[in-house]
Specification:
The chain has about 220 residues and is an alpha+beta fold. It has a single domain, classed as 3-Layer(aba) Sandwich (Aminopeptidase). The protein is about 35% helix and about 25% strand. It contains 6 helices and 7 strands.
């Protein structure tokens, strides 16, 4: 598959910070991610990579994608180029295990890669981790204004269970508290299986369509 999800490493943090700055108005410092990865045994973080976006070291053009890479910073001054092993990161996500509850802490994709199912791919990767570590429910907070994210979470069985008033420090916006049912139940496992199969088919179909467009000379921006 074009898009793959791997465990986050310390080397990935600079790229993660850049994407987070583009995705959110309020961000974590790099030290927080280092602490999560090194000192928090309950934390699990992943990065999402576009395997077709490989950038040559010492060059500002991609080696095989046919286009310039997306901006890596909002700053105007030139930025040090990142090595190819992290330059193709296009999203990241994480969760904490709290007793038997998986608490999703963050999900973000680069703005150029939205509306392609990649946020959903990150979400399912977190669910896979939740299954692996024995969680029985998944929970998260989401801005009350973020209807796109809420629709995705509803698709995976999240339901509103409360509100955290003025939860977001940047503008004082409230957060919805959302929970799943027991993800270990047969009912939920069957639902999750069908959802992930549909997602895999969608990603495969989009990649096939892109390949057809490239062959005909009408390739779309990746």
């Amino acid at each position: 598959m074009r898009y793959v999800v791997n465990r986050m490493t310390l080397a990935d943090i600079p790229r993660v910070i850049e994407i987070e700055k583009l995705a959110y108005s309020s961000t974590w410092p790099a030290s927080s991610y280092r602490k999560e990865l090194q000192d928090n045994p309950l934390a699990h973080y992943v990065v999402e990579r576009d395997t077709q976006m490989s950038i040559q070291v010492g060059s500002d053009s991609p080696s095989d994608s046919g286009r310039r890479p997306f901006p890596l910073s909002l700053l105007a001054r030139p930025q040090p180029q990142q090595p190819p092993e992290i330059s193709n990161i296009v999203g990241f996500a994480g969760l904490w295990l709290m007793v038997d509850e998986a608490h999703i802490t963050t999900i973000a994709t680069h703005p150029d890669y939205r509306h392609r199912g990649l946020g959903e791919l990150l979400l399912t990767s977190l669910f896979d981790i939740a299954y692996d570590i024995g969680a029985r429910q998944v929970t998260l907070e989401v801005r009350v204004s973020n209807s796109v994210a809420q629709n995705l979470y509803h698709k995976y069985g999240f339901r509103e269970q409360g509100v955290r008033r003025r939860y977001y420090s940047d503008n004082g916006e409230d957060a919805l508290i959302m929970w799943t049912e027991d993800i270990m139940s047969n009912h939920y496992r069957e639902r999750y299986f069908h959802l992930t199969q549909a997602l895999a088919a969608r990603l495969a179909a989009e990649e096939k369509d892109k390949g057809t467009d490239a062959t005909s000379g009408t390739a779309q921006l990746a």
